[in-house]
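FIELD: query
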Amino acid sequence: MAGNSRLTVAVHALCWLALAERHGHTGLSSDQIAASLESNPVAVRRALGPLRTAGLVTAGKGPGGGWSLRVEAARISLADVYAAVEPGAVFALHPHPPRPDCPVGHGIAPVLEDVYENVGQAVIGELARHTIAGVLDTLLEQHPLPMPWAGVPVPRP
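FIELD: result
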């Protein structure tokens, strides 16, 4: 079973916005973010929509607009991002109730609810320990690009 990548895409986009901000850019277009993701601008807008709803990013209109962080990167935890893009429980129970007269079907839901609740708390706890700024700092330190920073036009003076 494949996992979904909404959290990864959102963290990538937020790190890209934070890096652009560090280099003096006030906003990036969906095209610029899509280039980093090797994606398309529509997918970027779809990915950033929940982050805008959560108040983590803002989207300006017109020339000089674009996406930018609304909250300082050091104050955005991965748990915040997860809550925005993955609302609900980490795991779900059956899509329909199992057979109640089955020895397993009778009691599986309450047992798994407890397990899943603990897993969810562990996931959120670990994600809360990391921020967008921290992820960006770690990736720049551990995996520096072997060429000058590129991908976003130089800011106008």
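FIELD: remark
The longest strand covers residues 57-60.
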